[in-house]
């Protein structure tokens, strides 16, 4: 095991933040097997992943000592030192950078065309060879990309660590929710196995959801290269990148985190990054649905918010999910599900301003267009 420190650009004299990565198995120059990259709390106020990383680290320490890590595993137990330090009036502000207002999980830079141009003369009819060439050139392009701010340097550091990985797991959570995943549609054949191991109730699929979140920045390079070089060179979907939503923000419990960590280890064993008896593939407890079919439930008026249904329930179009109560007029506004689907997430705030998104129902049909993720 090796610990690496990555200094970020200093935002002001006398200040310096750094990112810490923990490396297991064989480093890139010596690696024969696959590479997995796992990071926690990119949204710094989403802490279930940080506790999962704690348990993963203990398990990986044991596996490393036993010589069972056949590939490379990089663990970033706290992926956002900027957001972790943002406190305002005793409240943690970890989703958006307070300087720019930018979401820490958006706007990851695109090095796709620069990499394609650098790699084209080296490509062949051997798909595995092409994967190696494109990874090498992508890593060079990411490292060479200029950055001017602390936030940009954080993004470049995270991409430098992850861009050549076979598996990328970005550990997040919702407010109150069941276990669910986000990934790009071309990743679903490989993600389906992860969904079984992690016990995901629903996996939400899109091919470019908008604003370049971290997971898509890692995976979309491959299907875009495949499209660019179609008919010339074979390009595989060489990265499975997934946002893992570890239930709700308050689900920071050892029992849950230890089980989640073990499920991730079992998946890595199944994929061959860790030696040992291959675990049986669990039965699926959920399915895949279009992200464009995940319907936000909005409060049309302001008031006290109370829910009538729990995350994880199957609901029908027209079912009342919540009430918004005006404390002055005593009027009650019903919030109804617009579709049949899985009521998989809701907010933990209990006073809703008018227009607030308070819950999500995953339907089976793609109904939305444009940018598909929230703020």
From TrEMBL:
The question of whether Protease is a record keyword is answered with no
- Return the protein name: Succinylglutamate desuccinylase
Taxonomy, superkingdom: Bacteria
Keyword Metal-binding part of the UniProt annotation: yes
Q: Which organism is it from?
A: Kinneretia aquatilis
Domain Succinylglutamate desuccinylase/Aspartoacylase catalytic span(s) in chain numbering? 33-265
Its needed co-factors are: Zn(2+)
One Pfam family linked to the record = AstE_AspA_cat
SUPFAM superfamilies, A to Z? Zn-dependent exopeptidases
State the Gene Ontology terms under molecular function: hydrolase activity, acting on ester bonds; metal ion binding
Q: Which controlled-vocabulary keywords does the entry list?
A: Hydrolase, Metal-binding, Zinc
């Amino acid at each position: 095991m090796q610990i690496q420190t990555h200094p970020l650009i200093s935002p002001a004299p006398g200040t310096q933040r750094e990112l810490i990565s923990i490396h297991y198995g064989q480093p890139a120059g010596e690696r024969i097997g696959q590479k997995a990259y796992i990071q926690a709390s990119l949204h710094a106020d989403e802490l279930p992943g940080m506790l999962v990383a704690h348990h993963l680290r203990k398990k990986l320490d044991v596996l490393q000592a036993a010589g069972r890590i056949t590939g490379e595993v990089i663990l970033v137990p706290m992926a956002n030192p900027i957001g972790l330090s943002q406190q305002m009036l005793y409240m943690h502000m970890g989703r958006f950078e307070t300087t720019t207002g930018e979401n820490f999980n958006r706007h990851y830079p695109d090095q796709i065309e620069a990499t394609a141009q650098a790699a084209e003369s080296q490509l062949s009819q051997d798909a595995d060879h092409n994967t190696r060439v494109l990874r090498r050139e992508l890593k060079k392009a990411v490292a060479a990309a200029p950055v001017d701010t602390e936030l940009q340097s954080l993004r470049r550091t995270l991409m430098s660590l992850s861009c050549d990985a076979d598996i990328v797991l970005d550990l997040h959570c919702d407010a109150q929710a069941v276990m669910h995943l986000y990934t790009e549609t071309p990743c679903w054949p490989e993600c389906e196995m992860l969904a079984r191991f992690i016990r995901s109730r629903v996996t939400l699929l899109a091919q470019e959801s908008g604003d370049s979140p971290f997971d898509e920045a890692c995976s979309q390079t491959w299907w875009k290269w495949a499209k660019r070089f179609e008919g010339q060179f074979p390009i595989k979907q060489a990265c499975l990148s997934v946002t893992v939503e570890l239930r709700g923000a308050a689900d920071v419990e050892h029992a849950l985190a230890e089980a989640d960590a073990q499920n991730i280890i079992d998946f890595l064993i199944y994929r061959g990054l860790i030696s040992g008896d291959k675990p049986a593939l669990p039965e699926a407890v959920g399915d895949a649905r279009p992200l464009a079919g995940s319907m936000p439930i909005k409060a049309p008026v302001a008031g006290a918010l109370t829910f009538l249904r729990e995350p994880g329930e199957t609901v029908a179009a027209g079912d009342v999910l919540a009430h918004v109560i005006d404390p002055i007029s005593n009027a009650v506004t019903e919030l109804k599900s617009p579709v049949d689907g899985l009521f998989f997430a809701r907010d933990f705030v209990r006073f809703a301003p008018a227009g607030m998104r308070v819950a999500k129902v995953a339907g089976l049909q793609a109904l939305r267009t444009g940018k598909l993720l929230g703020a």
